[in-house]
Design a protein that fits this description.
This protein has 401 residues and is mainly α. Among the domains are: 94 residues, no CATH class; 96 residues. The chain contains 13 helices and 2 strands, in the order ααααααααβαβαααα. A two-stranded antiparallel ribbon has the order 1-2. The longest helix has 97 residues. The chain starts with 6 loop residues before the first helix and ends in a 5-residue tail after the last helix.
Length: 401
Amino acid sequence: MSDNESPDKKNEANKPAPAPAEASKAGEAAKPEPDAAKADVKIEAKPAEKKPEPPKKTASKKEAKPKTSGGGFTKFLLLLIIAGTGGGSYYFWQQLQLEKAQVAQLQTQIVNTKAEVAATLSDFGQKTQSTLENMNQTQADVRTNLDNLFTRIGNTSRDWLVAEAEHLIHIANHRLQLARDKNTALAALRLADQSLKKAADPSLNSIRETLGKEIASLEVLGIPDYEGLAAEITGLQVQIDSLPFIVKTSLPKEEKMQAAVEEPQTEPSTVDKFFAGIWQALKGLVTVRRHERPVEPLMAPDQMENLKANLKLKLEQARLALLQLQPEVFKSSVSTTREWIGSYFDKEQDMTKQFVSRLQQMADINIKPQMPDISKSLETIRAFKQKAQLSQSASSGKSPS
């Protein structure tokens, strides 16, 4: 310790060391008074030179300990705050960079999408323009074709109605001659007559008269119902399995046995009368049947099945002949079937009677009647159109096409 220290401090140093609790209290009490000690140092005079005893090490260490621990904690806290602030700033900086990269990527995608949309719109616009041009060209071609058509057949209402009637008459001839379709042909001729009636042209009366005759000839024409007959034949094929066969048992005349007992000349006794009555009763119960020919055996089961199969084949042959318009084959197949049914099945049963009756009705049907000629009206209307074109060409100075 230096010679400039105050006597008070020297006296404190010469005092014995207080207890640990008192020393800590004394340290806390003496801690906030450094300025007062310095002031005393300046005012007081130097004491007599006396070498104080060195202070005990334990006391000085205990006085310096609180100052050192408080400053270290503060520094550590500051370091933590600085480190946390730096770490947070670095994290937020990284997030900011990541968001910037994502924004840049989205902007790139938007630019690419805009380019694709622009290319698609451009391509669509080109295709639309090309489609519109094609449609315009098609429309122009249609107009040209219509103009040519009007030039060829004329654009008056009468010419249109005559052309429509010609087409209907052509359909009627086609359906009647090729498909033997009476109903469609009759409807087409009636529509053609109505078209000519709408034209209200006296020059068409001859065509209408021809149409009237052809319509009348079709109305009286008897055309069989081919589809209905074919379905009915199929139903008869199914009924064959239910038809009853004939039971072949030939039973000729029956003869009763006659008694060969001669009547007695004398009056019979009571006992004889009794036995004679019993004998007469027994004779009435017993009969003798004499067959002039042997009993024919029944058909074997396999023969019955073969017969039914042959009948079905005959009916199928008749159905095909009906659809192919072969009247001879149709009539022959139906007649053969009817004969077989009458020979091998019981004709006394109602089912068999109805079956045979329907086969007889089918055999009488003419499946290919003679078709009337309805082509006269078509020739007449075509001649009328040709004459009209000649007169039109003559008036315009052009040759007919």
